[in-house]
Every structure is written in structure tokens, then in C-alpha cells.
Amino acid sequence: MIRDKKHIDELISACLAGQLDRASQQELDAWTDAAPENGRYFEHRQQEWFAAISEQQKAVFDKDRAFTRFLEKTEESCVRTHPATNPPRQFRLSRVWEYAAAVAITVVIAVFSYRRGEQKVVSHYTDIVIDVPLGSRTELQLPDGSTVCLNGGSHISYSQGFGIHDRSLTMTGEGYFEVQHDEELPFLVNTPNLSLRVIGTKFNFRDYTDDKEAIVSLLEGKVNLCNLLRKEEITLSPNERAVLDKESGKMTHERTAATNAMQWTNGYLFFDEELLPDIVKELERSYNVRIQIANEELDHIKFYGNFIRREQTIQEVLDILSATGKINYRQKDSVIILY
């Protein structure tokens, strides 16, 4: 239910015309954020506002030609009103300029209002969200032409203006990205722990919420990476990776065979000196099973291994890990226990 509809309509109209003061803008923002139906009402009013002007019309508008055409129309009007048989009437040039100024002001307000309103539309659109179920993978093409393959249990979201206003997305989980080159719109990936900025490149990004480490491996191009836990930045070159210990906030920078990091996209499970807790999470996501670590001292053990998920069962993978002599396992009901 919209209360005081007339007042809200006045605020919306003033906002789209760029005439709201700060206090009124804050009042309107608070109202649109207060309920979903308020946001939908705002969007509906914006659509009505923009119905008369499109981006294409802005692009082809020629103010000089419009003014010349205005003068021609004015002269034609004078000729029709005052035929040649009558004495010529003095033409008021100042009046022409008054009309021209009115036309120019109208155009400026329309374009300015469109831009202000366009920003408001983008801010109120619902983000596009992709969630990948456990035990599966999803490959998709982003609006800018970049591609991403998402691992099970991953989540990304981005605005409907992606590729037009920005190329920024938020993510949890793991994704292999092949980014289209665009110097004007850098590609940004954001998690609570890391912020990554690229122009055009190929990289693997893994930062699941419940993992102890976040890992970024670069195959091609260059990546600027910001550790948000310590406010430090590094730059990755091909065949380098950054490993962030999310508990301590320490981030290491090392050489690696980066193609190994994206083996999961081909159905492989590749563990490159990874902590057992993170391996356990990966196995849970890949096989949709529950695994518990019984002893805390196992949390610091690392493993190196390569498995074919579609050909090897979870028991076969655990048998190989147990063969190292570092761990054993048993199954109790539906839970696998490592000890």
C-alpha cells in the first residue's frame, strides 16, 4: 500500500528531473528501500518517464541542426501569417532566442534527467544470481562475452548493467574465468577476503566460505590482487598463484603449474599441496557426501594428488589418501570419519 501517493509522485518526478535536494533524495531512497512494492512502483514510474526518450534518440540528436530547423519553421510561420502582399512586419530576433533557449533547456533537462534516472534504474534492478548445486558444474557466458565455469557449491551475482556500466561481480566458491579484453571496463571479482582486478586474462579463483585458504592461479595475462584482510596488494604473472590463509590473513605468492588449478573443469580433482580440511570440503562438494575430521592435528596436513571424479568413487579416493599413512577413515551411518 502506497501512502500519500501524491507526495511520492512529486518526489519521483523531482528526482528524475534532477531537482531533489539531499534531504528529499534521502527520503525517497528510504521509501523505495522500505518495501519491494515501493521499489517496483518507482521502477514503473521511471519506465513511464523514459518512454518518450531513448538512448538512440540521445545519440542522434544534433542541437545545431535542431536550432536551424527551428529558425526555418519560425520563418515559415511568419510567411504564412504575413503574405508578401502585405508590408513586412518587423521580426523580433530576441523572441527567436527565447524559443531557442526554451528548446535547448528542454533538451538539456531531458538528457540530464535520463542519465540521473538511468542510474536510479540500475540501482533498483535485481541482481542476476547463479547458484551451482553440490556435485555439479555450470558453464556460462557473461554479458560482456567473458566465460566462467563454476564448481559445485559456488555462487556469483552481478548487476543487470554488467558489461555496460561496469564488470564487477561478487563470488563465493570456485570459478575458472576467461575474460574478454576491455581496458575501459576492468573485470572485478570480489569476495569477503579478496578483490581481483583484470583487463583480459585466464585465471582460476577459489574462495569458498568454509575453506581455510583462498587460492588464485593465473594462466594468462596479469592480475592485480588485493588481500582485504591485511590491505595489501600483489600482481600475478602467468604460472603464479596467491594462497591466502584466511585465519592469519597471510598471503603467499609462488610459482605453479597454473593449468593444474583448472583440471576440475574437465572432471578431475587436483590437490596441489592443499590442507586436508579444504580437500575434505572439495570431496564433499564433488561427491555430495559428509566427511568429518576427528583429530585437530590433521587440520595441518597437506596432500598432493590427482583423481578422476567421474571414474573414481569417494572410497577409492580415500583409499589412496590413506595409503600415504597420514590418515585412516571409517564410515558411520552416512558420515565418513577421518582419523
Q: How would you sum up this structure, described in words?
A:
This protein is α+β, with helices and mostly antiparallel strands and 339 residues long. The chain has helices at residues 5-16, 22-34, 36-50, 55-60, 63-81, 93-124, 276-287, 314-322, and strands at 128-131, 138-141, 147-150, 155-158, 167-178, 187-190, 194-198, 202-207, 213-220, 223-227, 232-236, 240-245, 251-255, 268-275, 290-293, 302-308, 329-332, 335-338. The strands form three sheets. Strands 1, 2, 3, 4, 5, 6, 7, 8, 9, 10, 11, 12 and 13 form a 13-stranded mixed β-sheet that branches. Strands 15-18-17 form a three-stranded mixed β-sheet, with helices on one face. The chain has a two-stranded antiparallel ribbon with strand order 14-16. A hairpin with a 5-residue loop joins strand 12 (240-245) and strand 13. Helix 1 packs across helix 3 (36-50) and helix 3 (36-50) runs antiparallel to helix 6 (93-124). 25% of the residues are buried.
SSE order and pairing:
Layout lengths: L4 H12 L5 H13 L1 H15 L4 H6 L2 H19 L11 H32 L3 E4 L6 E4 L5 E4 L4 E4 L8 E12 L8 E4 L3 E5 L3 E6 L5 E8 L2 E5 L4 E5 L3 E6 L5 E5 L12 E8 H12 L2 E4 L8 E7 L5 H9 L6 E4 L2 E4 L1
Parallel strand pairs: 5-6, 15-18
Antiparallel strand pairs: 1-4, 2-3, 3-5, 4-5, 5-8, 6-7, 7-10, 8-9, 9-12, 10-11, 12-13, 14-16, 17-18
Helix pairs in contact: 1-3, 2-3, 3-6, 5-6
